[in-house]
């Protein structure tokens, strides 16, 4: 896409957002039956910023990891999945309590879709008046949905004190969420609920836990580089320490 066309489309998207219309989501094939959905939020300085969630197509439905960044964009994803695959979302697992992870759970709940998170995530979401998943787990949990295995893992605090990652052992995909920073990231990002001192040890826990990782999906920006993002996240965290 030519730069002028991209900037024009981006300007149109920002204008649409100002008119209380959703920014357009984007879906990208990752591997096999796994796709990344990118939604967009408006930061405090008015810039448009991407957020990644992930979905897996099964025989009878779709597994969603994190919702898009808000209700209108979540509605877009629901409509896209139905029009493209004629499949409904079976369940959603949120990886922490911020709006770019749980902002669309009420949309899903109204449609009878099961929404999950850790108990701590739901408690923290409630404290700040954010949307709350319906079902919770207190320990690392394995979901088996139509023979698709998803393993939740709490590595320790980092981006937030509740952040988890999700491992798909069959495809060797690690959804890192906002706990993992993209190689595109120039800084550690939102520190409002971060634990910079704990982050390095938590990254080490992930590296020790999962082997032969083929794909790593961060919560924001691009995912090229895979496990190189671990080192990049560590470096950004070190640069941020007081």
Task: Give structural notes.
The protein has 242 residues and is α/β, with parallel strands linked by helices. The chain has a single domain (24-240), classed as Ribonuclease Z/Hydroxyacylglutathione hydrolase-like (Metallo-beta-lactamase, Chain A, 4-Layer Sandwich), CATH 3.60.15. Helix content is 32%, strand content 27%. The protein has seven helices and twelve strands. The chain has helices at 3-18, 71-85, 99-102, 105-110, 119-127, 196-209, 228-240; strands at 26-31, 34-42, 48-57, 62-65, 89-93, 114-118, 135-137, 142-145, 148-153, 165-168, 173-177, 215-218. A seven-stranded mixed β-sheet has the order 1-2-3-4-5-6-7. A five-stranded mixed β-sheet has the order 8-9-10-11-12, with no helix packed on it. Strand 1 and strand 2 (34-42) form a beta hairpin. Helix 6 runs antiparallel to helix 7 (228-240). The longest helix is centred in the first third of the chain and has 16 residues, at 3-18. It is globular. Residues 1-20 have low confidence and may be disordered.
Number of domains: 1
> Looking at the structure, what is the overall shape?
globular
Mean pLDDT: 91
Number of helices: 7
- SS elements, strand count: 12
Main beta sheet: strand number and arrangement? 7 strands, mixed
CATH architecture field: 4-Layer Sandwich
CATH topology name, in short, is Metallo-beta-lactamase, Chain A
Strand content: 25-35%
Amino- and carboxy-terminal Cα gap: 41 Å
Regarding CATH, which class? Alpha Beta
